[in-house]
Model the fold of this input.
Amino acid sequence: MEFSEEQKFRNTLMYIMLGASLLVMLGGLGFAILHSIQESNTVAPELYYAISISVFAFGLAMYIIFRITLYTSVDSGGFHYRYPPLISRKRTVYFEQMVHWRVRPLKSIGEFGGYGHRRMLFTKKTAIVMGSGDAIELELEKGRKLIFSTAKPEALKESMRKYAAGKEIV
Done:
């Protein structure tokens, strides 16, 4: 059985935080505009630059956050992943490169400090975390570990068992 999964950032807390930051930004800009109008009866030209830069930066951040998607798949060629816009080309971890693999519980905040692409330098771990739940951990040669969150742990296990059965850690 081949496995394929697509995960996006969809978290209620994230929507609340983005909405709150938008309100703070708009409130600050509104206060600056009112203050400028009270002092000179016009909007200061510098505020147009500040507003433009703020709206552009916030829009770019929103675009990136909502565009980020983790694509993972397993077939006879190996474990494939892509994480655009950070990792735009498909990368493959061949089964010959794997020493062990396992599906395990994942605590995104406690273990990696949040969501996204995480690299732990001293422990040789690289993780792409899209939420808490379950993850697949691939241990490669030289002790390096790749960790990917998954919303379909049973289907992923079944596919990995088909192609890399002798390398599972139970």
